[in-house]
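Data availability (excerpt). The following record was deposited with the supplementary files.
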Amino acid sequence: MKNLDLTEQTVGSLSRLIKRKEVSPAEVTKESLERIEKLDGNLKAFVTVMEAQAIEAAKDAEKAIMAGKYLGPYHGIPMGVKDLFYTKGVRTTAGSKVLADFIPDYDATMVARLKAAGAVIIGKTNTHEFAFGYVTPPTLNPWDTQRIPGGSSGGSGAAVAASMCLAATGSDTGGSIRVPSAMNGIVGLKPTFGRVSKHGVIVLSWSIDHVGPMTKTVEDAALMMNIVAGFDPQDATSMDVPVPDYTEALKGGISKVRLGIPKEYFLEPLDSDVSAAFNKAVEVLKGLGATIQEVSLPYVGLSSLAAPFIVVSEASAYHERWFKTKANLYTPEVNRFIKIGNLMVAAHYIKAQRIRRLICRDFDLALKKVDALITPTLPITAPKVGENVVTVGTTKAPINAACGRNMYPLSMSGLPAISLPCGFSQGGLPIGLQIIGRPFDESGIIRIANNYEKNTDWHLRRPSL
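Predicted structure:
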C-alpha cells in the first residue's frame, strides 16, 4: 500500500487491511525484514532472523487469504519469538553457549498455536541467559541506545518498540514480560498462571513461570490471547478453565469499576517522573468513572525475599543435568545463581513457599474489596548500560532489586497483570502502568487498560530511529 509504513502499524489495524486484501503478508514481511536489516545491527534484538522461513510462510498466508481462507487477525502478521521458546528446526539457545547448537524437533505450544493462526515467525528474539536477569545483553533500548531494554524478554521488547515485528512472545518469572514492556513503551500481558501453555518453553522456575504477549496495543494483546490461551494436556501446570473472547473486553467502559492502590510496598520509593506519571494515570481512570480506594497488602513486601529462594532452587534443579558437564559455558552471573541454588536446603524452600501463601492471601482479600489493583510497573525508567546500582527516589538499590520489586508479588501470586505506557520521563524514557486482576480475569484488566489507552496517546509514540 503506497505511502503507508506497514511496520509502524498495529496488528489490529494491519490485520483489517490484510483481511480486505489491501495489503499482502508478503509486503509486510518484506518491510519487516528490511527494517531488521537496517536497525538490528545496532539494537541487537534478534538472535536468529528466519528470513527464508518467514518469506515462505508469508507466501503461504497470502495464497490462503486470496483463496478465501483467512484465519484471523494474526494471519500474515510478522512476529518475534523469544529465544526461550522451542521452534521446530530453528536454533533455540536461551541466550546461552550451553544451548548454542540446540535445534528442537517441535514447536512450543504457544508458537504452534500462533503458526496455526497464520502468524509469520520472523525471528528469535534475544533473552538474558536462561531468563536469569533484567538486562538482556547485548540488546539496546530503541528509545535511548545508551540504556538497557529490560529483561529477560528484552529482545522482544526492543523488536516490537522499534517496529521490526508487530508483536512477540515473552516469558515472565520475575517480571520478564512487564519489565521490558515498561522500559520500551509497549504493552505486555502476564496471564494467570496456567492460562497459557508453557510446553516447549525452557524453564526458569517451574512453579512461577508464565508466558504471554508483548504488543504495541491492548487490542493486539487481546487478539493474541484469543489464539494462545487455553488448556494444554502437555503442560502439567495448564488449567482447564473456560476461555472467553478477549476482544469482547475491548467494548466495555469502566464506569463504577473499583480500583485499589496498595498502601504498602509498590509506591515506596519511586522515581519522581514515575510518581508523577502514575498520579496522572490515576486521574485519567477517575475521569473515566472508576472509583479509587486504598487497599492493604501487609505481607506482599516479603515477596522480594521469598521469590529468589524459589526461583534459584527450582532453576538449579532444572540445570543440574547441564551444570555437571557444562558449568564453564554459563556466564559468571548465571553460574553464580545456580551455585547458590545448589546450596539451598529444603527448609529455605518450604519457608519461601509458606510466605508465598501469605502473599496470595493478601491479594485474595484485597481483590474482594476492589475489581483490580493499579501500581506503577517499575519504580524507575530504563537504567544505563553497565549500571549495576540505580537511584530509586532518594535511595540506591541493585538493579535486580529495583526491577523485581513490583514484579515478584504478581509472579508469586500467579495473578494476571498487564503493563502499558502511561507517560515518559523528562529524558524521554517510557513509564509503565501495571493493572492487576483476579485469577483468570484477563478480560477485566484488558478492559481497564483499553479504556486508559483509548483516552491517552502514549501508545502512539514511537522511538526516533
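Summary of structural features: The first helix runs from residue 11 to 19.
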